[in-house]
Amino acid sequence: MDDFLARAWENLSGRVGGPMSFRLVLQPAVAVLLAVRAGLRDARAGRPLYTKSVLTDPAHRAALLQEGWKDVAKVFVMAIVVDIVYQWMVFRWIHPVGMLFVAFFLACVPYLMIRGPVNRLVRSRVTEKRLI
Q1: Distance between CA atoms of 73 and 55, rounded to whole angstroms?
Q2: How many degrees, rounded to 5, is the angle at CA 113 between CA 111 and CA 116?
Q3: Euclidean distance between CA atoms 102 and 99, whole angstroms
Q4: Buried b vs exposed e over 77-103: b needs ≥16 C-beta within 10 Å?
Q5: Euclidean distance between CA atoms 56 and 76, whole angstroms
Q6: Burial 11-43 (b: 16+ CB within 10 A, else e)
Q7: pTM as predicted
Q8: E-assigned strands of 1-132?
Q9: Which residues of the chain have a pLDDT value below 70?
Q10: Kind plus residue range of the DSSP H or E element containing 73
């Protein structure tokens, strides 16, 4: 297991300065844009924070995950495709677990981190304007 983690970390850190490093900025940026759009949609609908709801509301968890996946699926698939090209160019081999890890890290993590705070920020601004 330690060998796997060491190799995964080495491969991930090597991607920063290697070929196709533009994707390390582009893919999270697209995921953030999708999360902002979804957070605005949540705020308009008066929904609670997305990640909190996914973690604490088992009754709606499947529907929320499906909605989130619908937003981020294209970025996730593009992250996989680009990582396959990268791995083939650099290693001449494809590591599926590493590919899934990188795709999740570049597409899903930024989405999960941004959607809820955008919702909260917009709702607080709207509430603040109503008080004035």
Answers
A1: 20
A2: 90
A3: 5
A4: ebbbebbeebbeeeeeeebeebbeebb
A5: 24
A6: beeebeeeeeeebbebbbebbbebbbebbebbb
A7: 0.76
A8: none
A9: 1, 4-5, 7-15, 18, 127-132
A10: helix 61-91
Most distant CA pair in the chain: distance in Å? 62
Contact 83, 94 (CB under 8 A): no
* Contacting residues for 4 by C-beta, under 8 A, at least 6 apart: 97
d(CA 53, CA 16): 33
At 109, the amino acid letter reads V
| Stretch (H or E) spanning 75 | helix 61-91
Which pLDDT tens digit goes with each residue over 44-77?
998 888 888 899 999 999 999 998 898 889 889 9
**Which residue shows structure tokens 């999270």?**
28
Q: Of all residues in the chain, what percent are helix, strand and coil, respectively (each to 5)? A: 85, 0, 15
Q: Number of H helices and number of E strands within the chain?
A: 6, 0
Q: Which amino acid is at 11?
A: N
